[in-house]
Automatic annotation (TrEMBL):
This is Uncharacterized protein. The chain crosses the membrane at residues 9-27, 33-50, 62-79. Keywords: Membrane, Transmembrane, Transmembrane helix. It comes from the Archaea. The lineage of its organism: Archaea, Methanobacteriati, Methanobacteriota, Stenosarchaea group, Halobacteria. It comes from Haloarchaeobius iranensis.
Amino acid sequence: MSLHTDERPWLTAAATVAFLVGVVALTEATPRSVLPIAVLFGGTALWNVVEAAVDTPKGSNWVVFGGLVACVGGLLALVDGSVLLGAAVVAAGLWFVADGATTVLYAPATERPAFLSGIDEDSGEAMRRMGTLRTVYQRLEAADSPVTPAELAADLELTEQRAADALSYLETQNRVEKEDAGYRVQPPRWGRFDPVVRFLVWVPRRLLRPVSRVRRGRAD
């Protein structure tokens, strides 16, 4: 996966260089002052060229992005004298490197949920799947009793397998729970503050995911 979608990476790389040269030539900026920006954007453009020519593993883009961010942080500290800001940027970059590296090492061993398989990131398929999840959840939310995959498929004009996959995925996200042969919306444990609590719980888990991947020997 690229840092951003780019069908003509060489053209983008050339345009990046031209832009940075223009900034120095037409403004009071010095090559030294634009060096952090040049490293980030220039490095991204060059990586897109590499990705266009080589089949890179999932997660490698975050390793490169994190390395570039860490370099920018180092330049902020050394060139601009912004030591605290530079250190914070370096720390953020190293986290991206760790997240990407553990993805490269352990993601291939992770089984992707059936509902998310076959999604093409360059198409609208991902958005359609998310729309299906939202529709399924809203249908369960309006139901007075558990809904089976067959009932859900008939109501929403889905295949029974697609309905079952969507329900299974929502169950892994703790949004619905199975009851007998059907599913129902999982009642919020924290009432109207439930989304906030879920987010606060998610943040440290996401930050520690590289560590948990190493400990478990697989991706979360």
